[in-house]
């Protein structure tokens, strides 16, 4: 009913709008006044976390994209090698697992069969499993050694939005917590990032306030057949997520690429007026990457692409090459997906509407996939 949708036309729109609160709720009570993390609920003994020599993340779909981003954070802040694998592929390749492996299973519903079978396989090999889940008391957390709940609230729309942002927050918390428990040379950076995380709800709110032009752009592209998405570093999984949203909602051919891979094949796809969304990393910090992506934008534009550039406020280098420029607030590099994903959600939702598709219930899809 309209009341359930809180005045929005679709649950998806309501859930996109709820993201600032969802993100804040996932942080709530998990950071103390001194900026230290208190994840007492992660009932895996600290010595087990200290002795872990590998992290393996298993998940599907959007949750898998959260896992891809988590890898960058976990490896950077903890120096523990981290693998991310599609849950549906995991157990069939006889993965190397032992009691020193910490497995993280990410799932909004907690009922995804592929993810459940992957975690069962991991536990059979003696690995500890930490679930990151949005649904209290669901099967995946019940069968895990510990759970960190994302407090996104119920997500009704099939296309995952607020669950994704809160999965990211939970992943950052786990990465930072592992760093804290194990001791890391990044102590100061961890404190800074915790501080930045507490500001992120406000930043997401600011992004939401500026989405008018993104909706207008989407309506103008409703007749297109293909949209490509490019990113680097954590922007690469953001590109994959943008493409997935467009497939499931707009039923368009959409593909995400690592921008550095363009020259290894995908650049052949670029033709006159092809919309290409580019997620640009912050010009601060990893500026080498930034420069490289700016030249990628130049290359595709020279071949006729219509460039839709998502870039940090104040990044002037991209301006000459952007046919459409979407600004997001400056954040530490690793946190950028929390703001950069939001315009892509709005873009896909608006395209679905413009194409006359069912936003909350896309064809052929179920909210939780309980078969393998
Ligand atoms: C996301 O928009 C999708 N509907 C889908 O990829 C989903 O993320 C995936 O099926 C995993 O679901 P889960 O998080 O409930 O395990």
Automatic annotation (TrEMBL):
Catalytic activity from the UniProt record: D-fructose 6-phosphate + L-glutamine = D-glucosamine 6-phosphate + L-glutamate
Top-level taxon in the UniProt lineage: Bacteria
Record's GO cellular component terms: cytosol
One annotated GO molecular function: glutamine-fructose-6-phosphate transaminase (isomerizing) activity
Active site: 367
Keyword Cell membrane on entry: no
Record carries keyword Transmembrane: no
GO biological process: carbohydrate metabolic process; fructose 6-phosphate metabolic process; protein N-linked glycosylation; UDP-N-acetylglucosamine metabolic process
EC number: 2.6.1.16
Residue span(s) of domain SIS: 45-184, 217-362
Keywords noted in UniProt: Aminotransferase, Cytoplasm, Glutamine amidotransferase, Repeat, Transferase
Subcellular location: Cytoplasm
Name of the top EC class for this enzyme: transferase
Main location as per UniProt: cytoplasm
Oligomeric form and interacting partners: Homodimer.
Known role: Catalyzes the first step in hexosamine metabolism, converting fructose-6P into glucosamine-6P using glutamine as a nitrogen source.
Name of the protein in question: Glutamine--fructose-6-phosphate aminotransferase [isomerizing]
Organism: Streptomyces glaucescens
Whole-protein coverage range: 244 to 615 of 615
């Amino acid at each position: 009913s309209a009341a359930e949708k809180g005045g929005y036309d679709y649950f998806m729109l309501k859930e996109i709008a709820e993201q600032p609160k969802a993100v804040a709720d996932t942080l709530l009570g998990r950071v103390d006044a001194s900026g230290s993390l208190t994840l007492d609920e992660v009932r895996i003994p600290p010595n087990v976390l200290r002795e872990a020599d590998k992290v393996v993340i298993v998940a599907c779909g959007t949750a898998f994209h959260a896992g891809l981003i988590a890898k960058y954070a976990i490896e950077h802040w903890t120096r523990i090698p981290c693998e991310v694998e599609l849950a549906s592929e995991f157990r069939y390749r006889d993965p190397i697992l032992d009691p020193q492996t910490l497995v993280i299973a990410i799932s909004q519903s907690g009922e995804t069969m592929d993810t459940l079978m992957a975690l069962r396989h991991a536990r059979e090999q003696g690995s500890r499993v930490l679930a990151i889940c949005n649904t209290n008391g669901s099967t995946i957390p019940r069968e895990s050694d510990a759970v960190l709940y994302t407090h996104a609230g119920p997500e009704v729309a099939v296309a995952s939005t607020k669950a994704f942002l809160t999965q990211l927050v939970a992943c950052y918390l786990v990465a930072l917590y592992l760093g804290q428990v194990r001791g890391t040379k990044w102590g100061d950076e961890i404190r800074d990032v915790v501080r930045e995380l507490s500001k992120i709800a406000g930043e997401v709110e600011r992004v939401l306030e500026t989405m008018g032009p993104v909706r207008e752009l989407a309506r103008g592209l409703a007749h297109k057949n293909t949209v490509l998405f490019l990113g680097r570093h954590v922007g690469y999984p953001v590109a994959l997520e943008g493409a997935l949203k467009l497939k499931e909602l707009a039923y368009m051919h959409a593909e995400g690429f690592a921008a550095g891979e363009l020259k290894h094949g995908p650049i052949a796809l670029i033709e006159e007026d092809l919309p290409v969304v580019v997620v640009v990393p912050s010009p601060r910090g990893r500026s080498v990457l930034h420069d490289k992506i700016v030249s990628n934008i130049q290359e595709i534009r020279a071949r006729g692409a219509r460039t839709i550039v998502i870039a940090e406020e104040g990044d002037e280098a991209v301006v000459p090459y952007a046919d459409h420029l979407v600004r997001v607030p400056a954040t530490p590099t690793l946190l950028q997906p929390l703001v950069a994903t939001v315009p892509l959600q709005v873009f896909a939702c608006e395209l679905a509407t413009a194409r006359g598709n069912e936003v909350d219930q896309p064809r052929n899809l179920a909210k939780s996939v309980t078969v393998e």
